[in-house]
Amino acid sequence: MSAMISINNVSKWYGDFQVLTDCTTGVKKGEVVVVCGPSGSGKSTLIKCVNALEPFQKGEIIVDGISVGDPKTDLPKLRSRVGMVFQHFELFPHLSITENLAIAQVKVLGRSQEEARDKGLKLLDRVGLKAHAHKFPGQLSGGQQQRVAIARALAMDPIAMLFDEPTSALDPEMINEVLDVMTELAQEGMTMMCVTHEMGFARRVAHRVIFMDKGAIVEDCDKDAFFGDINARSERARQFLSKILQH
Amino acid sequence: MALDFSQIIPALPGLADGMALTLKLLVMAVGGGVVLGTLLALARLSDNALLSRLAKWYVNYFRSIPLLLVISWFYLVVPMVLSWITGDLTPVGAFTSCLVAFVMFEAAYFSEIVRAGIQSISRGQINAAYALGMTYSQAMRLVILPQAFRKMMPLLLQQSIILFQDTSLVYAVGLMDFLNTARSKGDVVGLPHEFLLFAGAVYFVISFGASQCVKRLQKRLAV
């Protein structure tokens, strides 16, 4: 399998403060990679570097053969091919659900209104929210909004999906409806990079798990290895795992 | 002194013409001011340090000088400068020079309102727009500005009401707006007090009425 996303020696600073240190990893086509770690470990920053929402100063990130850090890269075009789902959903509150799903298809991909609308409705149906098409984001629950956000990203026919803590802002009862959609997506072979604390999801769905601490990748291994022999893990990962797996 | 308001009725068509000029100037100045103000706000918020600084200077400058001075300048100085450049002395006309003055002056105030509006929209919204492949200009036009304007609408309207009153300063260059018409009509029939009182009442009713509407709108938007 070829690398869809490859991250090589990426470092990033905010002023003097180094937030990412020599991060090297990758996501193969069809692979599901979960990135975990304590808050402030740089996992959200790393995933935002992949579609250049955050600039980085050193190293390189290649997405489907295109260098993200290259000043000559057409970033809007690259981003339009990589879906992203955010912690706080970020649906556009002034647009209806239908318009949220259609706007980038029309304005970025140049699809016709009808085509975009049909595609949006089909995906909305897929995430179980067809009946809500006419509503506005504020009228939906958090879990519903996040499912719409996933559908909005899928409407662009992405080659890979980035999830930045997609369930962290949700009430516990709504987490599963979002994870179910993500699981289904993974089973269909979507290339996914997910920053999440949902270790159950990682155990069930991920192929690989990356553990980050203080801006560096501490562990990068197969899911089975990561959850298998805890004594083979680094001290920091053990601490983290024991804290979140207890409950 | 007994007041005699009877002469106002025959003067109403002329006063209406004056009001038409006032409103025309207002609408065009608000339109131009909001457009220029939005561009200034975008410049001010841009990553380009030079652009940002230029916008800041512009805003600070126009907020530090009297409007009457700007109106006089654009009436006297700008045609002169234009004639230096183009060589021929075509007068710009009082209306155009006033309009340009108002647009440039009000843009400074509108830009601060729009800037606050843009900054009130979370960073996540622009990230979401970028993540969908939108360019900066698409993200601004389709996602950020519509939300910012919705939030800022009450403030923009309040500023427009202030501008409505400020349009009366065009008397300085002899433009026959509502107030200037009322004054001159009053002088002609020898009843300046009545006409000025009437003009005051009209300004009050329009401004106060509009202001109340804005307050109601603000409450509705807040829900």
From TrEMBL, chain A:
Keyword annotations for this protein, in alphabetical order, are: Amino-acid transport, ATP-binding, Cell membrane, Membrane, Nucleotide-binding, Transport
What the entry lists under Pfam families is as follows: ABC_tran
TM region positions: none
Residue stretches making up the ABC transporter domain:
5-239
> What is the topology of this protein in the membrane according to its UniProt annotation?
Peripheral membrane protein
Which subcellular locations apply to this protein?
Answer: Cell membrane
The family database entries (PROSITE patterns) matched by this protein are listed as: ABC_TRANSPORTER_1, ABC_TRANSPORTER_2
Give the family per the record: Belongs to the ABC transporter superfamily.
* Protein's UniProt name: L-glutamate ABC transporter ATP-binding protein /L-aspartate ABC transporter ATP-binding protein
Instruction: Supply the source organism for this entry.
Output: Aquitalea magnusonii
UniProtKB/TrEMBL annotation, chain B:
**Per its UniProt record, what Pfam families does this chain match?**
BPD_transp_1
How does the record classify its membrane topology?
Multi-pass membrane protein
Q: What InterPro entries does the annotation carry? A: AA_ABC_transptr_permease_3TM, ArtM/GltK/GlnP/TcyL/YhdX-like, MetI-like, MetI-like_sf
Matches recorded under SUPFAM superfamilies: MetI-like
Q: Where in the cell is it found?
A: Cell inner membrane; Cell membrane
| GO MF | transmembrane transporter activity
Cellular component terms, GO, for this chain's entry? ATP-binding cassette (ABC) transporter complex
Q: Domain ABC transmembrane type-1 spans what residues?
A: 19-214
Any one GO BP annotation for this protein: amino acid transport
**CDD domains from the UniProt entry:** TM_PBP2 (cd06261)
Q: What keywords are assigned to this protein?
A: Amino-acid transport, Cell membrane, Membrane, Transmembrane, Transmembrane helix, Transport
Q: Provide the transmembrane region boundaries.
A: 20-43, 64-86, 92-110, 195-214
Against PROSITE patterns, the record matches this protein to: ABC_TM1
Similarity comment: family membership: Belongs to the binding-protein-dependent transport system permease family. HisMQ subfamily.
- Xref: PANTHER family: GLUTAMATE_ASPARTATE IMPORT PERMEASE PROTEIN GLTK, MEMBRANE COMPONENT OF AMINO ACID ABC TRANSPORTER
Q: What does this protein do?
A: Part of the ABC transporter complex GltIJKL involved in glutamate and aspartate uptake. Probably responsible for the translocation of the substrate across the membrane.
Q: How does it assemble?
A: The complex is composed of two ATP-binding proteins (GltL), two transmembrane proteins (GltJ and GltK) and a solute-binding protein (GltI).
Q: What is this protein called?
A: Glutamate/aspartate import permease protein GltK
Give the originating organism. Aquitalea magnusonii
